[in-house]
Design goal:
It is a single chain. The protein is built from three helices and 36 strands. The strands form nine sheets. Strands 7, 9, 10, 11, 12, 18, 30, 34, 35 and 36 form a ten-stranded antiparallel beta sheet that branches.
């Protein structure tokens, strides 16, 4: 049985809350003062962009570690009031093949190898986030310009979906061996305008809660109090079967943003409100303390300019897939065990965690690492094109892959959760590349192979999306494709745009958005039979429009940040393409 939590009463109190030694104070795990409850959480964080006092954007570093992301996205644009605070999607979850994944070829893959978290994004108000200014909820009066010192304090909400088969979530990508689950996450940034002042102890605090069938968090969501229970699904956590059809709703309420998933295949529902009553808190830049807080949608409409000013992605109403967090391995080596204890008596340990991927994606030899956790000095670091990294120091801020950690063995391994043995089983050995750097920065892992949904039996089925709709039935008239992969490329000059590309050099493949036919999802009333959005590769007998495949991502947006590639604003093709 879980120890008594004691956090519900705290959530209702107006007083500030001191952080525990382990929690969610720095999503990327590089705080010099606070440890992260999830070893390797970085892949699920928001990708910031640093803006200097002259308004020039640069790649962001968290305590001298580069923590960029690869997040190909579709941004939905509408001037209709409510389009940024009342949003509905219909979707079908991916289903994995029954066969065991292949290690030395892309013939068979599971979705968790391709992406740790497809997600939907939305800006929220947080006056204690960058640039530390007031914010008016549900209002287009908020400025979000990257170079505006008076921009509203803004947080980045992600409604994330976690693929099955590679648990536990405390140090892996999955919350269950066979089912999907979802969580509401909110990232803030503890910096003032121009990054003149940041609190490096809690630079990117994150609120986290699974969607629950009773709407009550599994554990304390706030950065200050997050613990084992927060990230451990319980009997009330919404778990969804592979291939289920969902209705996904994000809508502002009197006490904060509601995220709800209705599983139309089973009749189950799960939800979470980002409210003070549920234990959500924003973070004081001065001392990292938390204050119970209702997180509301920032804007009324999803206009092009309404976005989070400090994020690399030009994020408003977003549909996205996170890439670059898995390498398949023949074996793993160089042990890096995980062991944590909490003030309330909770604990977690996973002794069979490693750093180095051998074989598989790394060819005939060993991969990157190991690194010395005490010094951050590493062996065999590589970068884009597979070239040797110019430094062996993981705290140099250089875009290199220093280690494969966290890496797990194939087959059963024993973890300890609150003193109880729990057996986890991965189908193959693999590395997540999210401890000493964030991501696969030589671009040779599973996300960058032709192992994405393409209609073949060896690959997962594609996610299918219809929408979004606002007010229940109104579609979004425009879209924009984008990806921030270029900022993770060592050859990319984010000021000039030279070397900033999708596909990254060294990648054998880069996935893209498409439209296709479906037999599962039905169109919204009055819109006829719509095509569905897919993500991955061309799907045989289904894909009807690819938008130029990787050419869809456009060119570096030098007017804002050259590490992000964007297309022109386009008419929403889902409204005009018929299947």
């Amino acid at each position: 049985m879980m120890p008594a939590l004691g956090w519900q009463a705290t959530a209702a109190a107006p007083a500030s809350v001191k952080p525990n030694p382990i929690g969610g104070m720095d999503c990327n795990g590089f705080s010099p003062k606070y440890k992260s409850v999830k070893n390797g959480l970085g892949g699920l964080c928001t990708d910031p962009v640093k803006i200097d006092k002259n308004g020039v954007p640069w790649k962001f570093e968290d305590n001298e570690h580069y923590i960029g992301h690869d997040e190909p996205s579709v941004k939905f644009i509408s001037s209709r009031p409510g389009s940024a605070n009342d949003i509905t999607y219909f979707m079908r979850l991916s289903k994995d093949p029954a066969a065991k994944p292949t290690v030395n070829s892309p013939a068979v893959s599971k979705y968790a190898e391709l992406s740790p978290a497809p997600w939907f994004g939305l800006p929220l108000c947080d006056p204690k986030s960058y640039p530390q200014n007031s914010c008016t909820p549900n209002s287009d009066s908020n400025s979000s310009a990257i170079n505006d010192p008076n921009a509203a304090g803004s947080a980045f909400m992600e409604l994330q979906f976690y693929p099955p088969g590679f648990g536990p979530f405390l140090d892996g990508p999955s919350c269950d061996a066979g089912r999907w689950c979802a969580a509401l996450t909110i990232d803030s940034l503890a910096c003032t305008f121009g990054f003149a002042t940041c609190n490096n102890n809690c630079i990117e605090p994150v609120n986290f809660s699974y969607l629950q069938t009773d709407g009550v968090p599994a554990g304390p969501p706030s950065p200050q109090l997050t613990d084992v229970s927060t990230l451990s699904p319980n009997k009330k956590t919404l778990e969804m079967r592979q291939g289920d059809i969902l209705r996904v709703v994000m809508r502002d309420t009197a006490h904060g943003l509601l995220a709800r998933v209705d599983d139309l295949s089973t009749g189950q529902s799960g939800s979470m409100v980002a409210s003070a009553a549920n234990g959500f808190m924003n973070t004081n830049i001065a001392d990292c303390s938390g204050t119970p807080f209702d997180f509301h949608a920032e804007f009324s409409s999803a206009k092009q300019q309404n976005q989070v000013p400090w994020a690399a992605l030009e994020g408003g109403v977003l549909m996205q897939d996170e890439l670059g967090h898995f390498e398949a391995c023949s074996s793993v080596s160089s042990r890096l065990p995980v062991s944590q204890s909490y003030p309330n008596g909770q604990s977690f340990s996973d002794p069979n965690v490693y750093q180095v991927c051998n074989g598989g994606a790394e060819g005939n030899g060993p991969g990157e690492g190991p690194c010395n956790p005490a010094t951050g000095i590493c062996q065999n670091a590589t970068t884009e094109t597979g070239a040797a990294c110019p430094t062996n120091d993981s705290a140099s801020g250089v875009n290199c892959e220093f280690s494969g950690a966290n890496c797990m063995i194939a087959g059963p391994r024993i973890t300890m959760v609150n003193g109880k043995a729990v057996v986890e089983r991965w189908p193959i050995a693999g590395c997540q590349e999210n401890v000493f750097q964030n991501g696969d920065l030589d671009f040779d892992g599973s996300s960058y192979q032709a192992d994405w949904p393409d209609g073949s039996r060896g690959h997962p089925t594609s996610f299918e999306y219809i929408g979004p709709f606002t007010g229940g039935a109104h579609p979004y008239p425009n879209i924009q494709f984008e990806t921030n992969v270029a900022a993770s490329e060592i050859l990319c000059n984010t000021i000039t745009g030279v070397g900033c590309t999708a596909v990254p050099k060294g990648a054998a493949f880069y996935p893209f958005w498409s439209l296709g036919s479906t037999r599962a999802l039905q169109a919204s009333p009055g819109l006829g039979r719509l095509c569905v959005w897919n993500f991955g590769n061309v799907i045989n007998h289904q894909t009807v429009q690819t938008f130029g495949k990787t050419a869809q991502y456009g060119t570096p947006d030098l007017a804002r940040f050259g590490g992000t590639l964007t297309s022109a604003v386009l008419p929403n093709p889902q409204l005009t393409t018929r299947c």
